[in-house]
Amino acid sequence: MTRSPLDLGLYLVTDRAALLGRDLFYVVGQAVAGGARLVQLREKRACTREFVELARGLVALVRPLGAQLVINDRVDVALAADADGVHVGQDDMHPADVRALLGPHKLIGLSVTGEEEARAARGLPVDYLGAGPVFATTTKADAGEPQGLAGLARMAALAEVPVVGIGAITAANAAAVLAAGASGLAVVSAICAAPDPLAAARELRAIVDAARAGR
Amino acid sequence: MTRSPLDLGLYLVTDRAALLGRDLFYVVGQAVAGGARLVQLREKRACTREFVELARGLVALVRPLGAQLVINDRVDVALAADADGVHVGQDDMHPADVRALLGPHKLIGLSVTGEEEARAARGLPVDYLGAGPVFATTTKADAGEPQGLAGLARMAALAEVPVVGIGAITAANAAAVLAAGASGLAVVSAICAAPDPLAAARELRAIVDAARAGR
Predict the structure, then answer these.
(1) Domain count across chain A
(2) How far is A92 from chain B (nearest CA, A)?
(3) B129 lies in which domain range?
């Protein structure tokens, strides 16, 4: 199957603790149906065997729908599941090491917080940056200080690759996040914890599409 | 550098919490100097970047001394550090998936507890089994029920590959562990927490060598 082109417009980052008891596959399916084209499987508690099984299941779910799946932190899980790439944080494997293991064709994303990390990311073999937290978030305990829209704009200006904003992004602030220079919206709770994940994804996707049409 | 032949006789499994405040590299160096020929880096709390750094450092330490390093659970860390292999538990990546990622020449070890898991390990692409806990252990919270020497003997009899015993093995019970059918001794506290890790390793190594000479 040909890989879909990278579309960072609406990017779902999973959090099984935020699903309101709903099944992960259900919510991811709804998100993709609603317009998410990139999904990050983030698991901080699953054992490796379960993590691989989840990754394989999600690849099988999202790829036929034209979306891509990246794995948080675990390059081995991405390789075993033949996922589309890996998203790493500053404490995870160095992007150069990830690239050596994944080869030239897989996606690598890197989280950055602040101008210093955005500057340090220049020249690294990554495909996009996840810049944040834009606003104060409760879904990631170690997310760091909120950077605000101005901080996001500074990180985006420094970046050599597309940037997605992350951190308490909602339909209410999404247009401002895109206007600040983000190529897309990375969301957790706005979809995972939405009463209607499909409707939530569609609403966010419409904001992305409108911003693109207006550029 | 040519890889050393696999010698399971004395196998150190690291536990940074058991080092009595001493440096990991110091204790591993002493263990290898005392006769450990296989070292497993087990890290349950390190972030991935630190885990890779530790693994690279230990490869550089033990390989010139004729010992080999395997990584607990993390195939990506083993690949990034070019370690000699991976040791997995029942909840970690399936050995067949590990083998696919590591290729035919790296070591794979698998933990088994009880006859059922020993039987299920038959035909898997592993180089050795870590069978235990032989005795009741406090260094691994999820180690399961002690199997005793009789349980170890049953697991060893079922195995198609060499078996190392693990779980509260000391110089006082080491000869009995080997007599029960183990090819080697996997130890954590007996070296990591020993007042003199070099002397502790030498004492255990002497028991292994004596058992081999007597066979």
Answers:
(1) 1
(2) 5
(3) 10-214
Question: Residue B47 falls within a domain, yes or no?
Answer: yes
Contact between residue B117 and residue B129 where contact means Cβ atoms under 8 Å apart: no
- Residues on chain B touching A94 (C-beta within 8 angstroms): 49, 52
**Nearest chain A Cα distance for residue B183, angstroms:** 28
For residue B88, the one-letter residue type is V
Residues of A in contact with B92 (CB under 8 A): 47-49
Cross-chain Cβ contact B80/A100 below 8 Å: yes
Inside any domain, residue A61: yes
| Tens digit of pLDDT at every position of chain B (215 positions) | 456 789 999 999 999 999 999 999 999 999 999 999 999 999 988 999 999 999 999 999 999 999 999 999 999 999 999 999 999 999 999 999 999 999 999 999 999 999 999 999 999 999 999 999 999 987 776 778 999 999 999 999 999 999 999 999 999 999 999 999 999 999 999 999 999 999 999 999 999 999 999 87
